[in-house]
Amino acid sequence: MKRKWVIVMIVASFFSGAGGMYAGLSAWGVKEEQAEPSPSYKLPDELYKVQTAYEMIGDKYVAKVDRAELIEGAIDGMVASLQDPYSVYMDAETVKQFEESLDSSFEGIGAEITVEDGKLIIVAPFKDSPAEKAGLKPKDQIVSIDGKSVSGLTIFEATKKIRGKKGTSVMVGIVRQGMSKPLEVKVKRNEIPLQTVTAKMNKKRGQSIGIIEITSFSEETAKEFKRELHKLEDKNIEGLLIDVRGNPGGFLISVEEILKEFVTENRPYVQIEDRSGRKIPYFSKKEKIKPYPIAVLTDQGSASASEILAGALQEAESYKIIGETTFGKGTVQQPVPLGDGSNLKLTTHKWLTPKGHWIHQKGIRPDIEVRQPDYFYAHPLQIEKPLKREMNNDSVKSAQMMLEGLGYGPGRTDGYFNKETAKSVRALQLQADLEQTGMIDQETADYLEGKWIEEMKKEKNDRQLQTALGYLRDK
Prior knowledge:
- By secondary structure, the chain is an alpha+beta fold.
- It is built from 13 helices and 21 strands.
- The strands form five sheets. Strands 5, 6, 7, 8, 9 and 10 form a six-stranded antiparallel β-sheet that branches.
């Protein structure tokens, strides 16, 4: 793997591809550090007690110890003391897994994770991935893997437990805002191809709006994006919508090349700030803006590179951001090879928007805030026993939200299974040619969830997309 800069989402690709954002060194003009002391190197005084502890444990401890493990533990401890989830130490085995996850495809469940306040958090599931199909969402907190608590696990230890061969399954326990108890989600691992760019034309009211969706920023993303953009421009588009919802980040060089298509030389597309407060802006050489209006779609799963893109287009060229506030990741990491295959990724800089705003832990607020319909926020159903009259729990609430979204009118969506809810369930069962019990057993739940997912994939029901298209047409 080439030596590169890391600038966002140093999150284990437990299931994902590019777990960090990389750029060629020339993009930053900063020399990469090498952890290789010269022969005349003198151990600092403050490290003598570390050396003494290492020798005492290695020589005198009651049981024989692995000295290599002592070193690993010491480095882990130093990095952990920073209390920075994006500064991480990876041993040689983890580095190898990380590099493998940058291939054109991988096997897993297809989501990105990070750490917030010591908690494992899902940044975003990849589009059409097993994680998305199973109902995992941005901001879900992972609390268990296959029934065992993740307490005390590093992000990479959690990675090893969740990754696995295609066709096998993993049970992920999550805590989600609005739920009274953890949710157990079974996810079947599969091969996750990393096709990062898709494009299409939306023609309505005599206007042609190009839509380009970017699911992550891989090494080939900028090339794919430019190819699709030029195809759309050859068809004389009258507006462009860039969709980075659920995009957890990727390679910096990719987002830079994309931004150079849109941001003119008048403003920087990004700035970096070092520990002394010195800020360095980066500019494109483009002289003119595009002849059509542009907007960007974001949500809570838009992170890192996605935020750089959204922030640049919003502040440098005053293009509108539509959707939800982004994830909020504004630091830069530098990889330092330690000579034995292991690697230290250390936070060394902040990245700032063109106007100098630091969005870390705040995200980028949309110019036009739009929530999806309520049923988009339902949870996967847990059917330990059939849901029926007089029950009151999270699964009933989610079922009611799904029924409401599908037009069955359960009467309420507060989690209390009343007579009207039972009536709507029987109507669903009639359509599905199931026994009309008015109760939600596993078979009914599977049908309901299938119809729910099908409904969410329809463009006409995507409120954020429709709002963005309407905005561009009015421009």
